[in-house]
């Protein structure tokens, strides 16, 4: 059985180290051939808007925009439905390839056989 990761990032520029950890683990897993679904919730939702990941900065960390592009290249990136609504975001506002989905989809992904869920 193959394993996959569902990773939920719950912070953005409000907690940059925690945010960067989620993106780093997601990108490392994708680079290792692991199936990855990265969920952006709370303030992390903004990082799916064009230009926002490029403006994120954390010393001694890979550029967040590079990590995000790595995940998008071979994984799935999702913004939480409620989080997007609270910020007035629609799929038209997001980077190509990023979807909006809700809790039922997250639960379905996180409880599938062979899945490890991580929350940052």
Key attributes of the depicted protein:
single chain; 120 residues; alpha/beta; five-stranded parallel beta sheet; 5 helices; 5 strands; 38% helix
What does this protein structure show overall?
This protein is of the alpha/beta class. The protein has helices at residues 16-31, 52-55, 64-74, 81-86, 103-110, and strands at residues 4-9, 35-40, 76-80, 98-101, 115-119. Helix 1 links the parallel strand 1 (4-9) and strand 2 (35-40). The protein is globular and about 35 Å long.
Q: Count the beta strands.
A: 5
Strand order of the largest sheet: 4-3-2-1-5
Structural class: alpha/beta
Helix content: 25-40%
Rounded average pLDDT: 97
Backbone shape:
globular
Order of helices and strands: EHEHHEHEHE
Radius of gyration: 13 Å
């Amino acid at each position: 059985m193959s394993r996959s990761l569902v990773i939920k990032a719950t912070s953005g520029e409000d907690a940059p180290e925690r945010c960067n950890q989620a993106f780093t683990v997601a990108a490392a897993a994708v680079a290792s051939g692991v199936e990855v679904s990265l969920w952006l919730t709370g303030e992390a939702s903004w990082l799916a808007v064009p230009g926002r990941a490029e403006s994120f900065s954390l010393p001694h960390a890979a550029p967040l925009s590079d990590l995000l592009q790595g995940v998008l290249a071979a994984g799935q990136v999702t913004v939480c439905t409620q989080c997007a609504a609270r910020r007035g975001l629609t799929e038209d506002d997001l980077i190509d390839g990023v979807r909006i989905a809700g809790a039922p989809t997250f639960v379905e992904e996180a409880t599938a056989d062979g899945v490890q869920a991580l929350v940052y």
